[in-house]
Write a structure and sequence with these properties.
The protein is α/β, with parallel strands linked by helices and 467 residues long. It is 36% helix and 18% strand. It contains 17 helices and 17 strands. It binds NADP nicotinamide-adenine-dinucleotide phosphate. NADP nicotinamide-adenine-dinucleotide phosphate binds next to helix 12 and helix 16. NADP nicotinamide-adenine-dinucleotide phosphate (NAP) binds next to helix 12 and helix 16.
């Protein structure tokens, strides 16, 4: 008996037998009749499913007749499949392929296509939702990974997962362990709300681990997925919301272009000019927030008397994070913000936007100051981030005893800036707090009334960083 037949007969679970042709992306280059005869044998051995390429359906049917295997088979379901590994299909192509599968007596229709944009998931969700026959449809690759994870929400017959990391048989597959433990795949149903992090890259984002754990420990319905989006942020947000996505985290490079995808913006997020959170409100309207600033500022405020009120603040960096920190400090009552940036123009321009309570200068000029008086110093540049851990944005003499020093960088947890600040007698706040709190604030916005499991979130991030 061939090895595959052995596996089939000893399997405690239903099995799909496939002998995929080279011309459809598989490994078999055997003559067609010989290739398909394996599937006929599988039917005789009562395999739960055989998967036959739609293009070979007619030959397969005639071989079944010749072998006296009338369709439909008594114990085996016929999956007719179509794969396109080079491009996404149009909706007309999908409709035509799907209809042909049904006419060709498929028990289950399977369509897998490559993705060129995250928007391709829309066709997958719509096809599954509208289908009146058992159907599997998948968008392959990182941008289509969500279609594999949330397949049950749209009524897919099944999804394909790999048996382990690195053992994927098609691009974008998630391993079964992750699918079951992280995404709680078996709990996903039509009513499950979907949340996710939009950006590029997102494959190493800690947000899915953090938010899925928070959903699980609070018994809150929902699944949180990575959503690799390279462009078209606003249309993606609108289209996915129509498919039951209830909230998004936004990371680089989507924080600015995503703003066009919401119906309204929180006031301070508008001033900052960037958002990292989308909330679907009770009336269905989408609102954009920025939880980065409040995360960092609240962590700093815990370390100083009277919070930011009346504090003289130095903000190193004038990028996305820097804008949030500078506006946030003033929002909470800081008396003055000095914006310091590698390129002076950006610092001066941001200071102008901030108003009379702010000034801007270059990092070089700032570091050459003999002395400076401030209460809080915040680094929002990537200087000191892994792998270039042995650098600090500020010279040692800039650090003053008793000041609060915050670093947005959280990998490593103790940056060179924080280490030197501690040695100087400063009070330090790590970027880990910003990361955990921006997520905690998102969770609070999405699930008002649910107690946010902040400590659990912190533990998840620490575990991930330790890995
Ligand atoms: P961004 O918009 O690209 O801004 C980068 C900033 O870093 C700019 O001010 C840039 O100065 C400066 N910079 C980059 N390389 C530099 C160098 N070699 N020397 C001096 N300055 C340099 O990025 P962002 O979104 O603001 O993020 C900045 C950092 O904050 C990243 O490390 C990010 O991981 C961290 N962050 C952390 C959290 C958290 O939750 N902890 C959240 C958001 C961001 P120029 O304008 O002169 O280029």
């Amino acid at each position: 008996m061939p090895k595959w037949a052995d596996i089939l007969q000893s399997s405690p679970l239903p099995v799909i037998v496939t002998n995929r042709a080279k011309w459809e992306g598989g490994n078999s280059s055997a003559p067609e009749e010989q290739r398909l005869s394996v599937l006929l044998d599988a039917i005789s051995l009562n395999a739960a499913h055989v998967d036959v390429e739609l293009k070979a359906a007619e030959l397969f049917r005639s071989l079944c007749e010749a072998r006296n295997l009338p369709m439909p088979f008594p114990t085996t379901k016929l999956i007719l499949s179509h794969h396109n590994f080079s491009r996404p299909l149009t909706s007309e192509e999908v409709a035509s392929v799907h209809a042909e599968m049904i006419v060709s007596s498929a028990d289950v229709c399977k369509i897998a296509m490559a993705t060129s944009s995250a928007l391709d998931n829309e066709l997958v969700f719509r096809t599954l939702q509208d289908s009146t026959v058992p159907t599997i449809m998948l968008a392959m690759g990182d941008m289509g990974q969500v279609s594999r994870i949330v397949a049950p929400k749209f009524g897919a017959y099944l999804t394909f997962a790999s048996v382990g990391r690195g053992k994927e048989s098609a691009p974008g597959q998630v391993d079964t362990e992750t699918l079951n433990s992280l995404y709680r795949f078996r709990d996903i149903s039509a009513d499950t709300p979907v949340y996710g992090v939009i950006g590029n890259p997102v494959s190493h984002s800690m947000s899915p681990a953090l938010h899925n754990t928070a959903l699980a420990v609070t018994n809150t319905p929902g699944v949180y997925v990575p959503l690799k989006v390279e462009s078209d942020f606003a249309p993606f947000i609108r289209k996915m919301t129509a498919f039951g996505f209830d909230g998004f985290s936004i990371t680089i490079p989507g924080k600015v272009p995503s703003m066009e995808g919401v119906d309204e913006m929180d006031e301070i997020a508008t001033k900052i000019g960037a958002m990292n959170t989308v909330v679907k409100q009770a009336d269905g309207r989408l609102k954009g927030y920025n939880t980065d600033w409040v995360a960092a500022i609240s962590a700093i405020e815990e370390k100083v008397d009277n919070g930011m009120l009346g504090k003289r603040v130095v903000c190193i960096g004038a990028g996305g994070a820097g804008r949030g920190l500078a506006f946030g400090a003033l929002e909470r009552g800081a008396s003055h913000v000095t914006v310091v940036n590698r390129s002076a123009e950006k610092a001066i321009a941001l200071a102008k936007e901030l108003g009379d309570c702010a000034t801007g200068t270059s990092l070089e000029d700032f570091n050459s100051l003999k002395s400076i008086d401030y209460d809080v110093l915040m680094n929002s540049t990537s200087v000191g981030m892994h792998p270039n851990v042995d650098v600090s944005p500020v010279e040692d003499h800039i650090l003053v005893k008793g000041a609060v020093v915050f670093d947005a960088v959280y990998n490593p947890l103790q940056t060179r800036l924080l280490r030197e600040a501690e040695e100087k007698g400063c009070i330090t706040v790590s970027g880990l707090e910003m990361f955990v709190r921006q997520a905690a604030e998102q969770f609070r916005l999405w699930f008002p009334g649910v107690e946010v499991p902040v400590q659990t979130m912190r533990t998840v991030v620490l575990e991930k960083l330790a890995q």
